[in-house]
Amino acid sequence: MRSPAFTEAHALVFDAYGTLFDVSSIDQALQAEFGPQASQIAPVWRQKQLEYTWLRSLMDRYKDFYALTEDALVYALQSTGTHARLDQIRTIMSAYYELKVFPDALEALPLLAERYRLAVLSNANPSLLERACAFSGIDNYFEQLLSADALQVYKPTPAVYHMAAEGLELEPAQTGFISANTWDIAGAASAGLPTAWLNRKSGVPEVLGYAPGQIIQSLLQLAA
Fold first, then answer.
1. Who is most buried in 46, 78, 83, 207, counting CB within 10 A?
2. What single DSSP character describes residue 218?
3. Which of 1, 19, 5 is nearest to 195 (CA)?
4. Name one Pfam family in it (predicted).
């Protein structure tokens, strides 16, 4: 049985962070290095990480995701008055290579792989994405690991989503997209991809004129 949002889809494309990978281990790395201060650093870091992808895309000044994320961390440390050694920054950043996969993703991926071609579409640079998927043991489920790095611009630029469809030799309407990030869903829908928003945090959709085709709380709902 196919998801209502993906009746025409031949492939499903997943965002990585927050969708497949649980980034809470990053918070644990922050906690290990900076103790209680980590709770102030983490939200600033995440917000700046997103802002820098958008700003660098608008400025046409690309920097790869790993380096950009480190820049955002440095900003977060400075803005919270946190002194950090270079080795501490390197330790925290290395956690991106060893992220845990959400339990529902581990259960759903083998089931979905029986019905669809699967791929990942992420802002992460290829080496980061490949190592994280290999570490978690989910790399074999995916036909392709697609990175915005190939275009030197970040989501939600339409060309990034079109790259996923083109890489799979499908039309956008045949390429289902799943993300836990509501701005990412709006971007994919705007680019013509059918979407399912994985609403892990009981949020609300962006008011951008592109509603998700389906709202789910677990990836297992797509495999039901």
1. 46
2. S
3. 5
4. Hydrolase
Question: Is residue 15 annotated as a catalytic residue, yes or no?
Answer: yes
Q: Are residues 16 and 124 in the same domain?
A: yes
Tokens of 17: 């962070």
pTM, whole model, 2 decimals? 0.95
> Does position 2 have pLDDT exceeding 50, yes or no?
no
In a 10 Å sphere around its CB, with 0-12 CB exposed, 13-18 middle and 19+ buried, how is residue 30 labelled? Answer: buried
Residues 198 and 125 reside in one and the same domain? yes
Comparing CA positions, the residue from 157, 149, 129, 125 lying closest to residue 57 is: 157
Sign of CA dihedral 20, 103, 127, 86: positive
Instruction: Determine the distance from the C-alpha atom of residue 38 to the mean position of all C-alpha atoms in its chain, rounded to a whole number.
Output: 22
Based on the fold, state whether residues 12 and 56 are members of the same structural domain. Answer: no
- In a 3-state reduction of DSSP, which class is residue 112? helix
Q: Tell me: the pLDDT tens digits for 117-149?
A: 999 999 999 999 999 999 999 999 999 999 999
Let me know: does 12 contact 146? Beta carbons within 8 Å. Answer: no
- State whether 190 and 156 are in the same domain: yes
Q: Which two tokens stand for residue 7?
A: 């009746």
